[in-house]
Design a protein that fits this description.
Layout lengths: L18 H9 L7 E10 L4 E9 L1 H5 L5 E6 L9 H14 L10 E7 L4 E7 L1 H4 L2 E2 L8 H16 L20 H12 L2 H8 L2 H4 L8 H14 L5 E4 L8 E3 L5 E3 L5 E4 H12 L2 H21 L7 H20 L8 H17 L2 H6 L2
Antiparallel strand pairs: 1-2, 2-3, 3-5, 4-5, 6-8, 7-10, 8-9
Length: about 350
């Protein structure tokens, strides 16, 4: 499956990102363009690899709006073939979701997934060249900035709020996997006691309350959260709204990238964003008001949301999802300081909201 018709197989090594391949990929959306050369400027390693590429363009490419510098993102790491599902989700994010959503995202010039190669590649505008402000996990936001971003997320969630058809076979988002179930399957298969104990004994484990150190509790909690997610409003979520995937555009508007779209509970995404984005003291003081603000934003979109107390119950339950994500997030994907900061924020929120008690009552 290639979301944008283009050249296959997709390259799985950086050496195979040639000018000829780049030209063919960009021509899939802008027929007739040409490149006379290309040069890799830098490579940023992580969960996925981001490669900044300078393009020597012909007149047709310039006229078509192909910029002189782009970001190519795909799976070029040792772990990448095992994470092809993440590359597929990001291709869907740009090819299928971006044209419909209120989320502001980088302009995409190519989005392709090659099932045989287990590779997904997107070619995006270089936000650095545009001068946006990138957010950072170790620089929490003020509550008013989180409120503004929740307004945009509410508009995004309203597109699919409690709608089954888009996710049914033949629907626009039939490809969307379940947000909670994917992590639940990962936990049940990968998180053996020795692996879990290694994370608990790390710096991030030390930053969390010992009340959340039990693997049995965590896997039971994930199972209950999966079941809960099938009884409450489900939406197409961005899927990874932590600060490292966010920016402020040059006009001050919130921007989003690195989306991993799934179908899941709206309040899981809200809890993930609010708790990750705020300093612990600000989250303690403002999370209920921010959920109320999100609720009002949904109502402005014509949605009839649940009562605030029910939304806060869901918020408190789904804090365990964010906690689990960062407690067991490999240091290859995020630096240890970032995993530790997030684990601490979620642990503090889980204590404040009695997440253990809320999940026990499910």
């Amino acid at each position: 499956m290639t979301k944008t018709p283009g050249p296959c197989p997709l390259p799985t090594t950086i050496a195979n990102i040639t000018t000829a391949w780049l030209e063919a990929a960009l021509a899939a959306q802008a027929p007739g363009i040409g490149l006379t050369g290309s040069r890799i400027l830098d490579v940023m390693h992580g969960t996925c690899t981001k490669i900044r590429v300078a393009l020597e363009r012909d007149a047709a490419a310039r006229a078509a709006g192909i910029p002189a510098q782009v970001i190519l993102k795909g799976g070029f790491e040792p772990h990448s073939r095992l994470m092809d599902y993440m590359h597929a989700h990001e291709v869907h994010a740009y090819a299928d979701v971006a044209p419909l959503t209120a989320l502001r995202q980088p302009t995409c010039y190519f989005a392709g997934f090659d099932a045989e190669a287990r590779q997904g590649i997107v070619i995006l505008e270089d936000l650095v060249a545009r001068g946006v402000e990138f957010l950072h996990p170790q620089r929490p936001l003020p509550p008013e900035a989180v409120a503004r971003r929740l307004e945009v997320l509410a508009r995004h969630h309203a597109l699919t709020w409690e709608q089954a058809a888009p996710f049914a076979p033949g629907g626009a988002f039939a490809w969307a996997d379940d947000f909670i179930d994917g992590f639940y399957r990962y936990g049940a298969q990968i998180l053996t006691p020795p692996v879990w104990q290694g994370f608990v004994q790390s710096a991030r484990g030390a930053a969390a309350s010992v009340r959340f150190h039990s693997l049995d509790w965590f896997l039971t909690a994930l199972g209950k959260l999966s079941a809960l997610g099938r009884t409450i409003p489900r939406v197409l979520v961005h899927g990874d709204t932590h600060l490292g995937n966010l920016y402020v555009d040059i006009d001050g508007e919130p921007g989003f990238f690195d989306s991993q779209p799934h179908v899941g509970p709206a309040l899981c995404e809200v809890a993930y964003h609010v708790t990750g984005a705020l300093d612990m003291a600000d989250r303690h003081a403002h999370d209920r008001d921010l959920v109320a603000h999100y609720r009002q934003a949904l109502a402005a979109e014509g949605i009839a949301p649940p009562p605030l107390d029910e939304m806060m119950r869901q918020f408190g339950c789904y804090l365990a999802f964010g906690y689990g994500i960062f407690l067991v997030n490999a240091s290859d994907f995020q630096p240890e300081a970032i995993n530790t900061a997030y684990t601490a924020r979620f642990s503090a929120a889980m204590l404040d909201h009695d997440t253990i008690g809320l999940i026990a009552r499910l």
